[in-house]
Amino acid sequence: ISPKIFAAQCCACVTALRLLSAEMAAAGNKARQWAQLGAKIFGEIVHPPGVRSPTRYLRNTNRPEKVLSYYNPVFENQAGLFRRLRAAGLMHDIQADWSDSQREYDKRRGKGPPKKGEGRRASKAKKKAPAAAGATA
Predict the structure, then answer these.
(1) Of 5, 77, 90, 137, which shows the fewest CB atoms inside 10 Å?
(2) Phi-psi region for residue 43, left (φ > 0), alpha (ψ -120 to 50) or beta?
(3) Would you say residue 17 has pLDDT above 70?
């Protein structure tokens, strides 16, 4: 095969490939349009091509140190500061007052947390101890 014939055949192949890829792109575009139309009809979410879906980001673990580094460092100590101001009577926090009143209400009804050494695990051990002592005697 002469170089001129070979070059002509290569040009023809390249042109055919370009036409084929243009047709495939048009078909892909049409398919994408149909998918978008179907999603509109059925109330589904369509993400544009090349854009990551938000679920990809939501699957990642939280990185609180990155989030905290975004904010002013004053906010790190804010909870402790508010607690001290509230204890001194200089600040009034309605939500904290409500939770305190609920805690007091539960305590009066006997529903508060148990004292140290009187929890569920300790009461189980006390029930087992007499049974074990009776079996050895």
Answers:
(1) 137
(2) left
(3) no
